[in-house]
């Protein structure tokens, strides 16, 4: 293939390669839409095993923020050995945090907290006091 035919063949191969690379790269070039939560509170599990319940903003960005934060604390009755779980609101710590900036690489999953769930009921009860 010399001359005009060889040139057209080489151009065709280059165009085909560019098309294949473009098709393979396309899913990675599109930005995924940032999820919109339909519930007031979200459950967030972090890589260290900590679970927090709160209002998550900026999920899908470099610095998601969790506010109105709650977590479960287990207490063991020394006499009966019965375990009781209570919901604690963050902010009573010495430094009085009102928000938590999260490293998105450490978020394992996020789930909605249903309005009729036990967590939502406990939060509403705490806010009512």
How does this model look, in words?
The protein is α+β, with helices and mostly antiparallel strands and 129 residues long. The chain has two domains: 1-30; 41-128, Roll (SH3 type barrels). It contains two helices and six strands. It has helices at residues 4-29, 118-128; strands at 41-46, 51-57, 65-76, 83-89, 99-101, 107-113. Strands 1, 2, 3, 4, 5 and 6 form a six-stranded antiparallel β-sheet that branches. The longest helix is centred in the N-terminal third of the chain and has 26 residues, at 4-29. The chain is rod-shaped, with a radius of gyration of 26 Å. The protein starts with a helix and ends with a helix. 8% of the residues are buried. The mean pLDDT is 88.
What gap, in angstroms, lies between the N and C termini?
Answer: 86 Å
The biggest sheet amounts to: 6 strands, antiparallel
Number of extended strands: 6
Low-confidence stretches are none
Radius of gyration: 26 Å
Q: Share of helix among residues?
A: 25-40%
CATH topology of the largest domain: SH3 type barrels
- What is the name of the CATH class of the largest domain? Mainly Beta
Give, in order, the helices and strands: HEEEEEEH
CATH architectural grouping of the largest domain: Roll
Strand content: 25-35%
Task: Give the integer mean of the pLDDT values.
Answer: 88
Number of domains: 2
Shape verdict: rod-shaped
Structural class: alpha+beta
If helices are DSSP runs of H or I spanning 4 or more residues, what is the number of helices?
A: 2
């Amino acid at each position: 293939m010399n001359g005009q035919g060889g040139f057209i063949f080489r151009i065709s191969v280059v165009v085909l390669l560019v098309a294949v690379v473009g098709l393979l790269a396309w899913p990675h070039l599109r930005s995924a839409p940032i999820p919109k939560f339909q519930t007031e509170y979200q459950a967030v599990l972090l890589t260290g095993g900590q679970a927090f319940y709160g209002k998550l903003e900026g999920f899908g960005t470099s610095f998601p923020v969790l506010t109105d934060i709650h977590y479960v604390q287990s207490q063991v009755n020394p006499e009966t050995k019965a375990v009781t779980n209570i919901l604690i609101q963050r902010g009573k710590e010495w430094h009085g945090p009102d928000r938590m900036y999260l490293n998105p690489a450490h978020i394992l999953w996020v789930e909605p907290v249903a309005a009729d769930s036990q967590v939502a009921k406990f939060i509403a009860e705490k806010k009512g006091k």
